[in-house]
Predict the 3D structure of the following.
Amino acid sequence: EYPHVVAPMVLADSTHPDQYPEFAKVLPAPRPDESAILKGLRDGPDLSGTREWVDFSANAALVRKAGPIGDKPLIVLTRSPNWPGDGFVPDEWEKLVEPVHQRLQARLCTLSTRCRQVVAAHAGHNIQRDEPQLVMDAIVDVVRQVRSFNDSGGATSDKN
């Protein structure tokens, strides 16, 4: 909503707007007896009753509508593709969706012409817990990029 006040961005194992439809393409057909977690891999989990209430469909639509962020610095932090599963999803499903997740994470870099993807070596989805230094370094990096750009006279606004 406010692109004029957003300078850089760091996405930490973010959900791609096409993640759940893409997962659905590689997963086995739904079964009536499967858990809500497995159903959520196809449709997006229902978090409406949790503290993290998130409407994945609405958020995906907002991200698509917002479009790219131009030349603003962006770092996409992605979990390790070799990170063991969390136990909620069967291993055979993890093996199907992880390559899709990795591909979509790389695609997030199309949001900016100044993007860099960093794949964590020792972190799962909660990169901030597993490799906090990686997150801190990414934040410092994008802030440094913006300050360097502003110091060089590239900025037209003092809001960055």
Observations:
- Residues 33 and 76 are 36 Å apart (CA to CA).
